[in-house]
What we know:
Strand content: 15-25%
Helix content: 25-40%
Radius of gyration: 22 Å
Oligomer: single chain
Structural class: alpha/beta
Low-confidence stretches: none
Strand order of the largest sheet: 2-1-3-4-5-6
Number of helices: 13
Shape: globular
Distance between the termini: 47 Å
Amino acid sequence: MNIHFKTFGCKVNLYETENMKQNFASHGYTISEDEKNCDIYVINSCTVTESGDKKMFKELRRIRRENPDAVIAVTGCYPQAFPNEASALDEADIVTGTKNRSTLPFIIEDYLQTKEKQINVCGYSSGDLFEDMQNSGYTGNTRAFIKIQDGCNMFCSYCIIPYSRGRFRSKPPEKLREETENLAKAGYREIVLVGINLSFYGIEFGLRLADAVENVCSVEGVERVRLGSLEPEMISDEDIKRLSAQPKLCPQFHLSLQSGCGRTLKAMNRRYTPNDYETLVNKLRSNFDNCAVTTDVMVGFPGETEEDFAESLEFVKNIGFSKVHVFPYSQRKGTPAAVMEDQIPTEVKNLRAKRMTEAAAVSQRKFLESQVGLTVPVLFEREKEDKLPHGYTPNYTLVKIFTKYLDKSLRNKIFYVKIIRLEEDYCVGEIIY
Length: 433
């Protein structure tokens, strides 16, 4: 039977979808990248924002409308966080959460036999183990993601994640080693470590994120290791010392900020101050050459005054991020922030997002300007339709080569490139050797 997957959300969800694909393939299913005329559709949902839910609902309705006889399964964070609402989705034949997704092929088999709607959302409890998920590769990708951490105990006031993912748990070091070795044998030269709260990797084992990085860096064949989104409060001076000793670790750090205003951070239940954050950024830049720092910034959090926003905006300008993901606060049912007083009007949130985005664009351009003239290694991706090679430097600067290589592909090869100029959001280079 043909099965098609739709994924919403972050790189962790993408990783989990790839794992589900391989699990279904091992059970005899044919994975189809073309969504037309498939027997089964699996929607891996994200529920970080209410707008994300709406996108998923819209896609679910479209798939059902266009494929009335197909089997549709909704899995992931939305059913886990809101099991009653998910169970009531008329378009879904099967509803599962984020736990025990390895059983989804069996749940689908039960549905095919009984034609009875299957609801299987298992709750999390303290002491749950990390789900044994391993991937052997990603079709069409140059880098491979490894999910090494799941769950969150922090309960930020705006976030539903602790309810949809459970408590902290980590991939055991021996499993991480095994998966990395398999991916290296498959030809992947860059490994990206991701998690729901990656900074807390290994806390139940008495380990640190640095232990995972050292583990992966020591695998023969791996040439680059990159980190996903990090929470700044868990990165110590000792961690930085250990991380900076790993030449394979890419000097690009996505440090989740959310706000540059101390009062707003406190209302968000974040566990650091703007000064703490800036100190960490300075330490990273002191220990990693040509370091890039990226971040997420929320605007319009309940109670955010014009003065609070101005403080956050000025902080972002002063840090000099290489890239900023800006988004307006979205009420998330089930979180404390959703019922806070002083909710900000949509038009105010949108205006603040526009101003923050403009500042972020200036910051990004300044960073790209700083890269011009440098000679850096670039890991090339699959060429696009115009056949122009493109790839990323260790600090995740996108570089394009305005030369067609018609006789050979540069994909998955590393060349040293001199950056000669910049365009809107990328650099242009020429291969040196």
